[in-house]
Every structure is written in C-alpha cells, then in structure tokens.
Amino acid sequence: MWLNPEEVLLKNALKLWVTEKSNDFFLLQRRRGHGDSGGKFTGLLVGALDTVLDSNARVTPFRILLQVPGSQVSWAIACGAAVEEMNRHWDWLVQNLLHSLSVFENKEDVASFVKGKVKGLIAEEVRGRQAAQEEDPEKFRGSLLKFELRFGLPSSEKLVTTYSCCCWKGRVPRQGWLYLSINHMAFYSFLLGKEVKFVIPWAEVTRLERISTGLMTDMVRVTTRQRQRDFSMFLSMDEAFRFMCQLADIALRRLLDSGGLELDRELQQTSNVTKRVLEQQALRAYVLALFRLPRGERLQEAALCSMWTPHARCHTPGTLYTTDRYLGFSSRDEGRCSVLIPLSEVISVEKAESTSVLPSPVIISVRSKKAFQLIELQDRDSLVDSLTTRLRSLQWRHSTFRSRKSLVCYSTASSSPYYTFCYDTKYCDGEEIEERPLRHTVNPDTMEQMKERLWEEHFSEYGRGIHMFRTEKIQKLVAMGIPESLRGELWMTFSDASSELASHPDYYTGLVAESMGQSSLATEEIERDLHRSLPDHPAFQNVTGIAALRRVLTAYAHRNPKIGYCQSMNILASVLLLYTKEEEAFWLLVTVCERMLPDYFNRRVIGAQVDQSVFEELIRERLPELAEHIPDLSPLSTISLSWFLTLFLSVLPFRSAVCVVDCFFFHGTKAIFQLGLAVLEANAAALCSSADDGQALMVLTGFLDQVTDNDDPSSPASQPPSSPSGEEGNPPVEQHTLITDLITDSYEVSQCCGTNPRPDLTVKQIESLRCRHRIQVLQAHEDTTKENAVDVSLSPENLSDIYDLFKTEHFINLYWGEGSTTVALQTHDPSRPYVDQYRVDRAQFKSLYVLLVPWLCGLHTDTVAHRTFTLLDQDRDSFITFREFAGWLDTLYCKELNEKIRLLYCLHIPPGYCDIIDFCCIPQREFIQFCKTLYSMFHGNPDENELFQAIATVTSLVLQIGEVGHRSRCSGSEVSSDGGTEDEVEENHREGSRDHPVFSTKEEGGTGKSLGLENQSEWTVSYAQILASLLTEQQLVNFFEKPMDLSAKVAEAKLKQYHERAGPLFYQAYPSALDM
Asked: Edge-to-edge strand order for the sheet containing 346-351?
C-alpha cells in the first residue's frame, strides 16, 4: 500500500534491507530474513526479531524508497507483505513517473513532486474506501470529489452525506447542495453565474430546530453565535434533520466535553462514521433506552417478527432486538407489549417447522421452563446461528467462572409479619452486609392484600421474573402502587438489576472490602450527607442503617470514580435500602446512575440539564396555554430540576414519592417527564396568575406537599371533610390529591394538547429530543462559564471572540492534525478550570500569533513567536492555556508602554527570571537580539525611517551605559570590548537566535552562562536602563502608546484562520488539484 512519505536514512537501510530492484530515483527493498534461502545468520536474526515483535511494531517485509541522487536521506513511499503488490506499485512508478523526473534540475523539486503524487494516490484510495461503504458508491465518489474541490478542506475531513436543498437569504432562496461531514456542514450554490458557498463547523452550532414560516411550512434553522441560516425543500426532511442533529451532537461531545460525556467507541474514530453507522447508532441508543440496558451493549440484529402472547391469545407484531447479552421484543406500538430476555436465562434457540399458519417459527426456551414463540422472522437462519453462537460462548463462560450462587431467587411473598416504620435493632453490627431490607412490615391492611392478590393473578397470566410480559395491564397495576412485600423484587425485575447481580457474584462484597477505610473527597462528602438521608425514618436513626448506607455509597464511589459521589445519591440509596437487600440496593443504584439516568451524576450534571431543556419543549408542545402565559420557561425548569435528580423523593411525601419510584423503574425517565407535565397541568391556572418566580415556586411546593397515598393512614384524603372555606373565621380547606390519580393523569397529559389528541410520549421521541437539546445545553454551558473567566482589560466581546479563535485552533488540530484524535483530546481536560481546559502547542500558538499580534516581525517573526511561547509556558508542559494567552494579548493591546517594554525585555531573559526583572540584567549579545526584535517590528510602518533612527539612537545610548558599567566593574584590569553599534545590529539582523540555549528550538541545556548571570564582570544592561533610554525618543513612545484596534484584528483573524490552516494542508495533499 502507498504510504505518506517518511524519511529514512540509507545507512540504516543497508543493514536490515536487501535491494531487489533499483533505478536513479526508486529502490524496491526486501527485509533480511524474509524469503532468504541461504539461511545466513544476519537474515535469521532479523527474521526472528520480526516474528516475535508485537504486531504493532512488526515491520512489513517489502518497501519502496524514493531516493534523490547525492542525498543520504530517502523517503519510504510504499510497503507491503506480498511481493506481487509491491511489483504493481513499482511498475506504476516506472511507467508514470520515472521519465518525468529527469526534467527536474533541482533535487528538492523531484522529492516534492513524487511525494505529492503519492499523497494524491492515497487520497484516491481513501475516496474509494469511503465510497465502497455507501449504498451508491459511484454517486458518493462524485459528491466526495466535488466536496474536496469546492471547499478546500483536507482529505481527512470525512464526508458523510449530501442533500439537495434551498438556503434562504431573507425571502430569496438559493438552490444548491448541502454537504454534511464529520466536523462541518457546508453549502454550495451556483446560479446565474453567481457562486455562493460557506462552511459551518459543528462546534459553532448552538441550536438546530425545525420551524414554520409564512413562506415555508417546514424548514431547518441552523443557529450559530454569529447568525442564523434556514434550509428547506429537502427530499427527505426527517432524515436530513436527524443526521444534522446526530453529527452536531457527536462533534460537540467529542470536542467540548470529551471527559464528561460517554461517546460510543465506534464514533470516536471519525473515519468509521458513515450514514449507515449513524443509523445503527441511533437505533442502538433507542434500544438501550427502551430496555434500560447497560451502555456497553452492542446492537447485533433488529428483525421484524411476531411473538405469541398467551394473555392476548394471538401473535403480536413487533421487532426483535438482539444485543451482546439480551433479547428484547417490542410491539409495533411502543408500550403495548414488551419482553426482555437475558441470554443468561436462555437454554436454547431452535428453529421449528414452517407452516402456512406459523411461517419461519423460532422457539426460545428459558430456565423457568417457559418458551417464547416467534414467527415471520426475516433471515431466520442467520439470526438463529448468531444467537446460538453467542449463547454457547456465554454458557461456556458461565460454566467456567460462575459460582454456585449464580442465580438470584426471590421469595414470592413475605411470610414475615408486616408493620410500618419499625426496625429490628438486634442487627446492629455495622461491619456486616445486611441480608434483608431495612424496612419490615407486619399485619398488612386490606388494600395491601388486595394489591398482592392482583399481582399474583398477573404473575400467573403474564409470567414472573425478568422475562415477564410487560403490557398495559401491568402499567395500571404499577400506577396503583406496588405492594410493600413485592416492591424490592419488582424494582430488581423492571430495572434488570437482577441480571447484573446474578452475573457478578461476590462483586459487591469485594468492593466493600476494598473501599471501606479509604479516605477521599467522595468519602468525606458521603460522611457529611449520611445523616441527612431520610432523617425522620427510623431505619436511619441507628448505626445499622447508617452503616449499610455508607457501604453502598462508598462501594459505588470506588466502582465508578468518574462519578464518585453526587448529592441526591444518598436519598435514592436510602429508599432502595428500605425495600431491598444491601447488595441488591447497590446494583439498583448502579442501574439508575449508569443506565436509566445517563450523564446525570457527573461533575456538571449535563444529563439533567439536557432533560430540563427537553422538558421545556414538552411544556410548549403539550401545555401550550401555560407556555403562552409564561414565555420564559427557565424558572419552571429550574424548579423541576430536583424532581428529576431525586425522582420526586425530595418534594413529595415519602409514601407518595415511593409510588413515583415504582413508575420510574417500570417506564424509565419517561415517567418523570409525564408526572412533571401532570403537576404543571394541575396548577396551570395558579401558575398563569402568579406574579413572579417565587410565587410559582410556592404554588408548586404547596401542591406537592398535599399529594398523598391512599394507603397512608395519616393521609387526610380518607379523613372527614373540614368546615368549608367560605365560613368566616375558618381556614381554607387544603385540597389533597392522590398520587394514584396524579399518575393516571400523567398518562393522559402525555397524549393530549388541550383538546387536540397527540401521539403518546415515547422513548424514541425523548431520545431524539435529547440528541438535539444536548447541542444547545453544551453550547450554553460554554457561553455561561467563560463570562468573566479572566481578569483582563479586554472588552467582553473581544475576549469572547479571542476565546473562540483559541478554541477553534485547538479544534483544527483535532480535525486534521497528526494523530489528531488521541493527542488533541489529551490537551482538553474538563476537570481543569474553564479557561485552562483548552490548550495549544507551539505550532498552534505560532498560527494564532501571526493572526493576532499587532506587530509582525518579518523574517524574525518565527523567532519572536518561539520565544513568546517559551515565556508563556510557565509550567513547562509544552502547552499554554487561554488564561496565559489572554494575559499576553492584554499586555500588547491594553497595557501601558512600560508593560509592553517589560514583555519584550522578558523575551530575552530566562522565563524563570521574569519575577525578578528589576534585578536581572542581560548581556550585550541578548541586548543586540532585543534590538533586532524592535527593528523587525518597524518594517512596513509609515514612520519606518524615523523609528529606525530613534532605535539607533537608543541603541548607542544603551551601549554607552553598558560600557560604563562594564568598565566600573572591571576597574584595574584590561578591558577588551567589541563595542557593538547600531551597524552591528544591522549586520547581524539575519542571524536569528538559533544558538540561544533557552529560546532555541533545539533542546539544549544551560541558561545562566549565556546571559551573563553568573559572571558579574561581563557587559550587561538592565530593564530600567533600556526603558529610560526608550523614553527619550518620542517617536518610540508614540509607536508603543498608539491605540490599536483589536476588534478589526479579530474579525480579520476569523476570516483567515481556516484559510491559513486548511488551504496549505489541502494543497499539500493534492498538489495536482489545480490541474483538475
């Protein structure tokens, strides 16, 4: 295969390689030890080394080198394992390039020409591989070529898909093509001789939405920080909008929050992203959310079929989804019927004889002696083979590693007596893991007995355990409230935490042993919150309950250090411990934090903020009258944040809140959205008439306090009514709402919009909204946290624009830099302070330096930029942060003359001495370099001659001052001085500072000697002396005190930044592009 040209020293090649073919410009070489028949010792040794080396370090046995006559350096341009492939490459070079190379007179031109051609061949191969992944390879290949030529982006900018559409400018549409790539969206139009094209990085997109206007009923609006653009007339609007949301979401999660949000492994490698991959990832995200599966599960198959449902006495049409460890069936109407079957519960998957009544049947047998029948399966044979292979692999692993207690068995009904809010205190050893729930109950009342009887009837008809049929009937039972004796079992079943517990025996015990006794920030926060968790409940008023809660929270913090411990986890874990055993409570907590509430419990609670943004849109959609009276819904979403974080446990009475947790484990996050909408609808009139946010908070708080459970003996709902509120002297009657009624209402409000019926709120809709709103939340977080982040004199507008330039430079390196994905992501650390998160290296800084510095230094620019980077890199990690970058620009544009001179002076002393600049002197050699810097800054200035004269005068004055000081220090000894003058400065103008041990790009040691900081008898001059001399020349004072327009510089930099970086990269990769 062709390679990006890499330098190779010929003297090394002669030892390990044998030349098979050669001419004036190319060598075909074979690695010693490969293909040798003589068996010489050297060949055997090299061959043995190549064999035992790791595959990543192993060298291919054949390669082709580009050699230039008279040079000791060659370039590897192709390599391979088969001699036939290398002969094809060799023949192509001989036939197409060899005769053309003889016309070049300069050997550097030969190397550049060949390297450009090879890179062009690589690009063509890349285009071919990308096109082969598409449904219509030839059509995609043409689109890819147009994309590269029209926008000039590097070949590594992966095109995903294209759409024909209109882009609107005011009321004028322009028909053209929209290109969606992994990092950008680009539009091109050529009509009536006028060309229009633009590129928008996904990282700049702040909002994507579908809107309707007077002209068009359906448009896509793309909003950036600078402007809005509207697109319409897509042949497939839904598909185009979905891919735009996915690509923007992937880019922002990859670029803005690489350490905070999980990103699928397949999407981390941008070269893998295709239209088909995006469709698969969207389906995978939906399946994981629908069945609340572990986020590491990979979707294997999705097949249309029908499942026999005994309760309905018919086959229910739907889709079978298979992942690494699960089978999931969902009916065509989401929520009507679903089944989840862990592969660990499956005994066999068998094909049955196909008939006209039962076409293509498959029987899935499980351990509970039940079987599930599927018919009308598409591609049945390959599906059964795939399932059988995974099942055998899983059974083999279980038979090898599973302990004797691999299955978790739950008692069907508690035989122990039932009593409320009581605790058996004989189990007070805080060091032993609790083997029973902390909440015990006796003497169940009539309502509890009725609920238990209903559930037992349901189990007999629909099954029991993880693979029970989940239908609309079970939804009604959950809305009534799960009986106390079954609550723990059903929570484990609905959430599938029971499968995790079964597959990880003794895992929790080991975590407890490892984590207890360790001290960290998480354990300190846990200890602080232990006694705040349900403090009024008897179970947590003694050592046993507190010890169990401590173990669960500490074990989870040890399991998942990325999350560690977050507030509200203590409340949730406390409730879980009341109804389940300690180990079960741990796995329920794992399921909630890692599956059911994704990205909620991290440093910035991004997941909760995204859901609040989704909640606002659902309010506008399903409660339009409320949204009309309250245009700004952000106060309501702020109030509702605690509803989502604590599952209403912190705002509802305890027994009512536990019923909400029942619904949450059955429906997932959808239950919280539905209940939140129901609460707002019930209080819509009061909220519309509220005067301010405080009154709205009081309305909602008062309502939630009065939501009661009908089973609660203390509930006022069952008590006789009080005197009417209309009688004088009597307080108004408090209106109480039953939690069961509120839950039932929540199912209805999610299906209607006033009097107009709407589709039910589905998991698919929630996942789609999350994808779109995550873009908005991440960008809003960026904007909010960067305000007033740096204490500088720059205007907020300029500071924001400069930050965007700085971040874009980081992104460009991530898009197209060498080793882009790994290296660039390592320079972004979300755990650092905001202004220190993004960092740039030396090459990136030089690009920004050229764009923003007020005085370019001609041929001396690279030297000054290099010294400036070294000065700003205070922690010596080869990166500078935005805080350091902004402080440097603030000095150049906003500080007084003496601060600017101080900065220039610091460029010529070791960075560590800048804090003692008043006591640090520079030698004559560095003073001459200082003068070179000043000279180069004046080139092109209208007052260039006057400034040169002024600096010559200052140079002479400072040299005289330094000479006097030198003689005074060397009194009594013979003084020999070169007496550098301004003529010497001019003479040395082109020398640069490559030999300087501090500021040289070469890695050399030593700083003090070269600056004369150790030898006090050398010629030196101080900062104060230079500053005083400069102040004597008004022309220089005017130059440094002249106000400079940073806004204009930033605006120009925005236009140039992509061109400066993308253009050279493009033409380097495609040297013959201009000929096309």
From this structure: 346-351, 362-366, 371-375, 299-309, 314-323, 326-331, 337-342, 470-471
